[in-house]
Amino acid sequence: MASSSAAVPRRPRGALLRWGRLPAWLRFSLLLAALIGLWQAYVSISDVNPLLFSSPRDVGEAFYDGWKDGSLAETTWTTLQILAEGIGIGILVAIALNVFATLTQIGEDLLALLTAILNPLPGVAVLPLAILWFGLNTRALLFVIANAAAWPIAINISTGFKTVNQTIVAVGRNIGLSQRRLVTDVLAPAALPYAITGLKTAWAFGWRTVIAAELVFGVAGGEGGLGTFINNAKLYLLIPQVFAGLVTIAILGVLFEAVFRVLERRTIVRWGMKTS
Amino acid sequence: MSAPPTPATSPHAAGAATPGPLLRVEHVQLGYWVDDGFAVAVADATFAVQPRERIVVIGPSGCGKSTLLKAIAGFVPLVSGTISLAGRTSLSPGPDRAVVFQEFDQLFPWRTVLDNVAYPLRVNGRRRAAAAASAREYLELTGLTPAADRYPHQLSGGMKQRVAIARALALEPAVLLMDEPFGSLDAITRARLQRELRAILDRTRTTLLFVTHSIDEALVLGERVVVLAGAPSSVREIADVRDVGPADSPDYAAMRVHLRGLLQIEHEGADADGAEHDGFV
Lengths: 276, 281
Hints:
The structure holds 2 protein chains of 2 kinds.
Chain A: H1 24-46, H2 56-68, H3 71-103, H4 105-118, H5 127-134, H6 138-162, H7 166-174, H8 179-190, H9 192-220, H10 226-235, H11 239-269
Chain B: H1 14-17, E1 23-34, E2 37-49, E3 54-58, H2 65-73, E4 80-85, E5 99-100, H3 113-123, H4 128-141, H5 157-170, E6 175-179, H6 187-204, E7 207-212, H7 215-221, E8 224-229, E9 233-240, H8 250-262
Parallel strand pairs in B: 2-9, 3-7, 3-8, 5-6, 6-7
Antiparallel strand pairs in B: 1-2, 1-4, 8-9
């Protein structure tokens, strides 16, 4: 039991320079700077072969040049375009399957079976078949990405619909909503936390899949995205460019995470449907 | 429109113009499927609700009183019997029988308090501005004006139930259906909301069908009390409680004892301690 004279608990502090009191952006910037410093120190001190490992300085230059001459921008744009299209197709497939599943028992069973079989399959595993069916072109890539994106979205939408709180569905019917508006105005927003989770997973799967597929395409001399950029740079032993491609991928990943966080903060966190 | 509207001006209150009961429940039988067959919950329910009357259906847990309310709301099919509202039977769910549920999560979490009340009005054909204006009146009536722009997760349980009440009242239902709306609240909040609901209904003169297992709640809110008991249950008595007076009057105490007897509750002393705020005390 706390007595009346008990001291107010002290605010916990970081040991070093009150680290925990610094703002988050500064903490992470300092850490990042330290890591880059270590990287630079390693390259300077160890005399590592520059054909194997680049210094952050060279990578920075390659990154800057790549964006300046448009080669990185172009390939990034190509990759993002294909990714967006592939995920878009995946979303459509997922929605169509869920509509079918809501309407009929056989649709529900089909959705359960397809997701059970295809969701655990790594997206890039179907690439050889896709190349066989479609050839070395964008359609093969789209197929692979759509396949990687569709199943996590389908599963999550399905779970979202199934776990909608029955009381608000009853309220929806009580206030006189038509069947269609019950879906668009009640079920859809109620399932939004799951839909966003599905979309995040689809993005992550699709992103990994498209880079991996492009690496393979690069070898085969197909058209160029970020993966191709990396692979070509390796072929010409332009190691700083390889690193610059990786840095671009990492930065894009962080950016998309941030976009999803903003999306969540403005919707499901604001509505108390997810704790931030 | 000026607050509070009366049922006579309400779009759903056609029954108020014609003499006789607004809502009729006649020999209604209800049940549900379990693993090995059909279980009858309500064997025979018969009663009528007059326009502007406040009826409380009371019964022990599991007697089927909530199922009966859901049947009136159109959510549960009847096994036999009829339910008619202003002469209409085969009722599907609709805003002329707006429901307030017991659960706190009956509000749309993605809509503000104001929009939770205004949205159902828009669904039913009201223009955006008119719906918002009407919603504001009902928020005022239920003391929610300061919370109008909050989201449901920022409200206490009592506030959420007020929003649900405002939403139901704003629809100007022919009959307001309430399914133990205060059942999950603490005793103090519950008593306050009972008093407030009574005052609000005195102004709106909404016809009420209220389901509860609390005798005190029935005596505070009801004009007549339909006692549902037995397994499967039937209507044991329809008691007129208009004149029982305040909670400390002898008539009130006598009615309480009478209702307890109908519900076959053990003598006061046999009751578990601490059950004072809840159940049949």
